[in-house]
Amino acid sequence: MTPQGELTWLGDGTGASPGYDLVGAFTGSEGTLGIVTKIVVKLTPIPEAVTTLLAAFTTMGAGGAAVSSIIGSGILPAAIEMMDALAISAAEAAVSCRYPEGAGAVLIVELDGPAADVEAQTQAVRALCTAAGAYEIRAARDATERAAIWTGRKSAFAAVGRISPAYIVQDGVVPRTALPKVLDRIAELSAEHGIRVANVFHAGDGNLHPLVLFDDMVPGEQEKAEILSGLILDLCIEHGGSITGEHGVGVDKSRYMPRMFGADDLDTMQLLRCAFDPGGLCNPGKVFPTPRLCGEVPGVRRAPHPLVASGLIDQF
Amino acid sequence: MTALTVPAELASACARVTPASPADTVAGRPARFLAAPATTAEAAAVLRAAASLGLTVVPRGAGSRLDWGPPPASCDLIVDTGRLDQLLEHAAGDLVVSVQAGVRLDDLAKVLATAGQRLALDPPRGTGDGVTGPGGGTIGGLIATGAAGPLRYRYGSPRDLLIGITVIRPDGTVAKAGGKVVKNVAGYDIGKLFAGSFGTLGLITAATFRLHPLPAQTMRVGVECPGPAAAAEAATIIADSPLAPSAIELDWPAAADSISVSALLEGDEVSVAVRADRLAQLLERAMPGQSPDLTKRSADRPAHPALAAASGRGGPGTGTLIRVAFWAGQLAPVLTAIRAAAARHGLDPAISGSAGAGVLEVGVGATAAAEAVAGFVTDLRAGLARCTTSSVLPGTSSAVVLHAPPAVRDAVDMWGPVQSLELMRAVKDQFDPERRMAPGRLPGGI
């Protein structure tokens, strides 16, 4: 549904439709270009085999090195997740996931695909984790064990409620190779500001979810947490990453857009917005800190909208 | 015949600006001037000068697909990206590469291969310079035309691997979007907007792509099928199998020939061999009599000689190349519709492409009469519409004439019907209000 109230399909579902890729341009636009009512998606067959591994390391550095060597060996797992000691302790308190004792970092690696490939890759990943210093590796033998491994990771965000009254979930991205440096710096910043940070992230693609913990009953702590949260985003930009990997810009991060993009970059993006929504109807105030003036508003309706004329909707 | 003088404003913007030579044409439309900027800043200066002079502009890379699409209504200035040929950054550890738009796909592939990586795009190549020109085209051209090959089944087309882009707007403004990381949802995806835009929104000067590991081994498992139904069955068996093919290709050189359907399996030596055997067994069991053929394959795709002969580019020998896109499950009726429409006009085109992704290329020789080809395209579109109806979408297929001899271009609507044309016009009006970038190249005269 366009901001002008017209229903239209973008693309024809083939992935090779002529003209501009409006589907691609619309995706990720956070409701600023219109409302999606129907979607055509491509499906893929369920993989034949899945393996889930849990590897424990004494330090985050070792875990990060394991990730780099896995990717560097040409294996692209379906998932590589990492949690630090603080996140692990929270998960343990919440769901008793019983991750290995004394872990400074755990890695969860999931491999899927044809059985022969998964078998070979599992052996390779085990070897690489061991070489990087893993002191314990668990491999799920069935769906139950797989779920058990994932419980800790999936409960992590909610679990920090056990160790902190309040927290901010941040979402930022850095190049994978910058992970060790960035994690070290986050630890430094955390110590400097006296605010704890639990790290949970998609190690395979450098998408961080630092959980910035604070007590909202202590005066000033929320502000400190917000400042630290913002500094982490600056860190991501500094290392060539992004201010959001998954959750979008919204209103909250629109003030960071000018730190990641120049004025001309934002102006150019907003040309797209002017093409779809010159009247600024859809989610105004989201994504861009300063709206662009779109000039003449084309297609201003003079006659009643057909849906109004037919009595299906009211306009006021 | 008076020689053209380069306007002073343009000459001072760029070190290499000359009057165009007779060879500097775009789909038959001759240009007046040619500029070859060496940097993004110089390219921006060229576009600013063109803007103040009111010149129409068409970007050009290697020219391998410059004759795709209708000719521009006007082509005052060709901006050649040949000197924007730097590899900017290859972050091998992150599986990311940034290149200027004039870098050739082949050259990039060589560099990436030394690190055991690749840009997983394999747009069709003909025999030598015949079809796609030297080096298989430039990165900028690849993005602008959206060209892709069989690997699109697993990896998509250029826009699916693009994670960052630098463009110059018609008024000379330089703008970036995306970034250097694969997961990034900050801002609009301008890269996707420019993919397939045929130079009508601005000039692409740099791009960043996600890479994949270069497989250690590649094998092809194929069957010869007597007709469309068997070909569709083979394609379905391969697609539904758990053997993760990278491509499902089809080749049907002429109506009288059998249809070859083959799966491309990539990975490490051992597992590829295991998967190839399993796939061969699956095909054999389901289609007794068609003994599957397993061949190890080198990195180079073998050319499809029939298609190449039918649709070689350039000069009087150029045939007609049509891209047919559809939902892959409709393969059998689509193949039938292509042959039926062709036969009605006495044509016997070569058909080849990705049975798995639902994108086929149809090549008609240069000697075919223009009315016959035009009639074929019209009937093909009608036939496709009939066999690909959906209760949900207005259209789920397309037949686009990518290139054709001049007589055919005049007789046919190259793009055919297109969804949401008004929105596309609105986008064009915002980016290029003066309509100077490759005007008329896209559907609806955009």
Question: How would you describe what is shown here?
Answer:
Chain A is of the alpha+beta class and 316 residues long. Among the domains of chain A are: 49-160, Alpha-Beta Plaits; 164-238, Alpha-Beta Plaits. Helix content of chain A is 37%, strand content 15%. Chain A contains 10 helices and 8 strands. In chain A, strands 1, 2, 3, 4, 5, 6, 7 and 8 form an 8-stranded antiparallel sheet that branches. In chain A, strand 7 and strand 8 (207-214) form a beta hairpin. In chain A, helix 2 (60-72) packs across helix 4 (115-131) and helix 6 runs antiparallel to helix 7 (221-238). The mean pLDDT of chain A is 92. Chain B is α+β, with helices and mostly antiparallel strands and 446 residues long. Chain B folds into 4 domains: 16-83 and 427-435, Uridine Diphospho-n-acetylenolpyruvylglucosamine Reductase, domain 2 (2-Layer Sandwich), CATH 3.30.43; 87-213, Uridine Diphospho-n-acetylenolpyruvylglucosamine Reductase, domain 3 (2-Layer Sandwich), CATH 3.30.465.10; 217-296, Alpha-Beta Plaits (2-Layer Sandwich); 305-422, Alpha-Beta Plaits. Chain B has 15 helices and 21 strands. Chain B has helices at residues 8-13, 40-53, 105-113, 129-132, 139-145, 152-155, 158-161, 190-194, 228-240, 269-286, 305-310, 331-344, 370-387, 406-411, 421-431, and strands spanning 17-19, 25-26, 29-30, 33-35, 57-60, 77-80, 87-91, 96-100, 117-118, 162-168, 174-178, 203-210, 212-213, 217-225, 247-252, 259-267, 293-296, 320-326, 350-354, 359-364, 397-403. Chain B has an 8-stranded antiparallel sheet. In chain B, strand 10 and strand 11 form a beta hairpin. Chain B starts with 7 loop residues before the first helix and ends in a 15-residue tail after the last helix. Mean pLDDT of chain B is 91; it is low at 126-134, 298-305 and 311-316. The chains are: A alpha+beta (316), B alpha+beta (446). Chains A and B meet through helix 1, helix 2, helix 4 and helix 9 of A and strand 11, helix 8, strand 13, helix 10 and strand 18 of B.
